[in-house]
Amino acid sequence: xxxxxxxxxxxxxxxxxxxxxxxxxxxxxxxxxxxxxxxxxxxxxxxxxxxxxxxxxxxxxxxxxxxxxxxxxxxxxxxxxxxxxxxxxxxxxxxxxxxxxxxxxxxxxxxxxxxxxxxxxxxxxxxxxxxx
Length: 132
Description:
The protein is an all-alpha fold. Helix content is 64%, strand content 0%. The protein is elongated.
């Protein structure tokens, strides 16, 4: 593979020395990378408008919040506090899945999960109960 890489580099250098790259569109300008090529065009337009207005898409905000909660979870040792953070992370994760268009847990089931986890957090036990 290194031989192939060296050959490619050699050919690129030869073309550059001949001036083959001087007339390319955007020559001398920084490259623009689009991270949103897989995002539908109408969503890209909305995201760009929001970005120009100083806002970020909800998914980005939720990812930042999830990272913050993960950092917080790494520092907390109290089982009840850990459980509360995990409930928040679960809710954010499900919201992200919904934004991605994936299968989302129905609202009622999600509410019951959060209530059950919150009940455990309040009791401070951190242990699973046998109740349904």
